[in-house]
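Re-run with default settings, no changes from the original entry. Doing this only to confirm the output is reproducible before filing.
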Amino acid sequence: MCRNITALRGLEPPATDEEIEAAARQFVRKVMGVQTVSAATRDPIEAAVGDISAIVARLLTELPERRQPPSTVPPLRRAEVRARIAAREAAEQEHERAHALGLPHEHAQSV
């Protein structure tokens, strides 16, 4: 099993759609062997993430309850991860704002 995918079965409260999608996305990236998405791979990857998310959501509802919750906390429930996501989203919004207003700004180099 991929080391970075957290167990979602047995969480209280139950896994959210966002957590299920994050796990599906991590699985797809692991299978692909890459972390970044190109224009050529975006559509098939998003389709796979959608399919796997639906399968996992169905599976979580069909499995019996766990006796104990998972020992790890899913990343999206950790304050430091939420803070990183919020900072990244704010930076992306500021970048889009700079484009919309025609303001000078930096672009990150692609690797």
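Residues 34 and 81 are 21 Å apart (CA to CA). Residues 73-105 form one domain.
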